[in-house]
Every structure is written in C-alpha cells, then in structure tokens.
Amino acid sequence: MARVAFVSSSPPLTSIRNLRRHFSISAAVNPKIPEMPQLYHSSLEVIGGGSDRFLPPLKDSLAKSYNAFPLIGFNRHVETIYAAFFRSVPAVRLRRECLRTKDNGSVALDWVAGDDTNLPPESPVLILLPGLTGGSQDSYVRHMLLRAQSKKWRCVVFNSRGCGDSPVTTPQFYSASFLGDIGEVIGYVGDKFPKANLYAAGWSLGGNILVNYLGQESHNCSLSAAVSLCNPFDLVIADEDFHKGFNNVYDKALSRSLRRIFSKHSLLFEDIGREFNIPMVANADTVRDFDEGLTRVSFGFKSVDEYYSKSSSSKSIKNVRIPLLCIQAANDPIAPDRGIPRDDIKANPNCMLIVTPRGGHLGWVAGEEAPNGAPWTDSVVMEFLQYVESRETINGERFFEDVHQIQA
C-alpha cells in the first residue's frame, strides 16, 4: 500500500540514501546547526520543530506580506462575519454516503461526485473536518474541495453526527475529544482506497479533534500528513474569551445552531435520565450551557470545565508523529492567540506553525481571490500537502521518517 504509518520501527540505516536522510533529519533537531535564512515575510510568524523541512516549499506563498483586504480585514469581527455571510459558496456536486459506526451511530461522508470515474485509485485522499455545527455546505469547505479537486486529489467531507444534515441514530452527538468517529472514518476511507495516501484538514473544533487524534493515536495513525486551521487548542482559554464583549454574539449564534440540531432529534433523548439536563439543552443560550446539559454527561466528564480541560488539543500536539501544519490568526476572536501551544510546537520536529497578523475566525480575507473568493490559507494548505505527497515515498521508501523515532 502507498499509505504508510510513520511509527513503524525504522530499518537499519545501511544504504547511502538512508544515511543521507538520517543525517539530514538529525541536523534538523541539532541545536548546534546554524539557523536557516528567513524564507517568509516579517508580517508572518513561522515557528516549529519541522520548519526546516516544511518551510522551503512554501517560501513563494509566504514571501509576500500578509495584506488583509481593505475595509474588511481591519477588524477581526467584521472579517469573521463577512466571511461567514458574504464569501462565495462554490457549486460542488457531492455524493453522500452514510457510515454506521460501531456504537450504532451514524456520520455522513460527502464525496465529490465523479471522482470515482475521473481519478485513479492511487490519487491522494483529503478528509475534511468542518468546525462546530459545520458541514459540507460551508463556504470554506467548498473552496477547499475545489482547490483539492483542481490538483487531482480525491476529497471527502466528514460531517459529524447531526451536522450537515448527518443522521443521528443514537442519543449521542460528538465532542471535542471523542475520537471514535474520526478513527472509524479514517479506517473506512483507507480500506476503500488502499493504494492511496490519506491526509486530513480540520477547521476550528474540527482542527481540535484532528490534533487530538494525531496525538492520542500517534502510533496507529495511518494519515500521511494533516493541517489544522484556527484551532482553539486550549478550550479553557477559548471558553473564557467566549463570554467577553462582542464574542457573546458568536456564542449565541453557535448555541442557536446546536439547539436546532438537538430539536431535530430530541425524541432520542426522551426519558434519558442520568445527569442529563434536557430542558437546559433545549433552551441553551450559550455553548457552555449546551455542553453542561448534554455533551459532558454523554462523554463521562464530571463538569464542563473538566470536559474543556481534558479535551484541549494543546495537550496532544507534543505527541504528533506525522507532518502537521497549523495555521492561526493572531486576532482570532474564537481561537485566542495565547492558547497556541508554541513551546510544544517548537519542540516537535514534525510540526510547523504559521500565524497571520489578521484573519479573524475562518476568515483570512486576503490574497488574490479576496474578498469573496477562497481564503488566503487554501493555497498554502495545498502546497504543504502536495509537497508531503511528492516526498511520501521515493522508490518505495519513506522520505519523511518520524523524527521522534530517529531521535530515540
């Protein structure tokens, strides 16, 4: 199979080619090696233990100043709202497949129609994880679908339980730390395309779930690389900021979306008992209320604060063992900059972080397609993924060895 886990035991370094790779990677983590010349514009923050490997192929995209679109990008809330309501929603024909999970739940996989006949079985597969209450209908998801499709990648959107009109067949939705569904989806897609390398990209809560999966399943992860965008990382910090000032608008909007999903399936929760507070859920004014009444109980947490603390992907990123690109906006109102685990990203030779000075949440209204086209991040994401795909195997050998394994 072309898809290779990064955690298998490394063979003896006997060939010249393996020796070269060994010394190259060792140099990447040797603090005595001089720093590389700056390959990105000063308006961006670029750090991470994997920067020496992943930054050079992105130098063209990152060499220019990040210029937010005038009148829109000057304010993080204006940019966030503009992107949510006025960004174009590309027409993409999708084919839905409902996957029944081991616990009798259901998730919806939306594949780009026609890919089965137009693409060879070894084409790389990109799994997309939208944010909280998001799905394949969202503009940022649709733009990424088009971008990947134009590069001959196979794409599928993973709609979590209840999201994107995904069916709900048990009295349980999903959470920031529940990895059962993502694990089954990745396994199913891998079995469906055994000759292809698998990749994933997640936004916001989808990014948090993805990074949690990469860290907690590091020794069993079959993805070749991943991208996390506007990840809240530290959910305790994100929750603190969610109740401040204008952020209350987002809180009410998201809780309204959660209530709408719940109301469609409320009969499943009739007479459920235990610690569930169904009236609180049905009338939740905040995401925290919804999580207190339903989510934290469903997944066995004693309190909503324990749920947020133990579900934060900032605790998992140090264990990531595949190439991971994280892209954040310094002024993101929902994924606070101070919650980014910079020290762990710097210490992990498989990770790289790009922080733009502006961008809001799911915004990034900048670049050639601004203001109504694709986010600035799309081209960077695909360049990173294409680079890893081009280097994934050379003559049947892995190019990107797990640096954790080599150091050990």
TrEMBL record:
Keywords attached to this entry = Hydrolase, Serine esterase
Give any Pfam family that matches: Abhydrolase_1
Q: Which branch of life, at top level?
A: Eukaryota
InterPro entries, sorted: AB_hydrolase_1, AB_hydrolase_4_CS, AB_hydrolase_4_sf, AB_hydrolase_fold, ABHD4
Please provide, alphabetically and separated by semicolons, the GO molecular function terms listed in this UniProt record: carboxylic ester hydrolase activity
- Record's family? Belongs to the AB hydrolase superfamily. AB hydrolase 4 family.
- What is the name attached to this protein's record? Embryogenesis-associated protein EMB8
Q: Which organism is it from?
A: Cardamine amara subsp. amara
